[in-house]
Design goal:
It comes from Botrimarina mediterranea. The protein has 185 residues and is of the alpha+beta class. It has four helices and seven strands. A seven-stranded mixed β-sheet has the order 3-6-5-4-2-1-7. The two termini are 22 Å apart.
């Protein structure tokens, strides 16, 4: 993944829900071109942050070993604009989990000097491609079967705080070894 729209996780319960945070700064170049005179975070990037938060939950359900892709937004609505100096909190919850993938509900809450308000709401379906299906498709396109190299995934999980706040449903702390990921110092 080239762009990350989640700065860190404040809560992560495997197989259940997660809270991801994103700060919006006036120094972020991408907010200046959306409206000519008024810098805002584009809704498309907010949707991507929602998808990354939920997608990580779904991918963890399969121990980060299977190819999980965003299949569709079954519902998506936006309420306000997000401006520099505000932050977003994404709250993702796994709904139905099927063999074909999983449905997640995600909200985005904006926080700033004027208080907090619900910014967006979505239902997202993530498709799970079987290992042989993913290997075959990836091989045809000259790509690896995983979206992430295990070391890159572990690095992202460390940087965003998943291993600092993440727990399994039984309350035990998530560790890289649980997923055959490298332990980074």
């Amino acid at each position: 993944m080239r762009w990350f729209w989640v700065d860190r996780f404040s809560e992560y319960v495997a197989g259940s829900h997660a809270r991801g945070l994103k700060g919006v700064s006036l120094s972020d170049e991408f907010i200046h071109g959306h409206w000519d005179i008024y810098p805002t975070l584009p809704n498309s990037l907010i949707a991507e942050g929602m998808a990354q938060t939920a997608g990580l939950l779904v991918s963890e359900m399969y121990d980060f070993k299977e190819l999980v892709v965003l299949a569709k937004f079954t519902k998506l609505s936006f309420n306000t604009l997000v401006r520099p100096s505000e932050s977003l909190e994404y709250h993702a919850t796994i709904g139905r989990a099927l063999d074909a993938g999983a449905q997640c509900m995600v909200t985005a809450t904006a926080r700033g000097i004027e208080g907090e308000r619900q910014q967006a709401e979505a239902e997202i379906f993530f498709a799970r491609l079987s290992t042989s299906e993913a290997d075959s498709e990836a091989a045809q396109k000259g790509l690896p079967p995983r979206l992430f190299d295990p070391a890159d995934l572990a690095r992202w999980l460390y940087v965003t705080g998943v291993f600092q706040v993440g727990v399994h449903e039984d309350g035990s702390r998530m560790k890289p070894q649980d997923y055959d990921l490298p332990v980074l110092a």
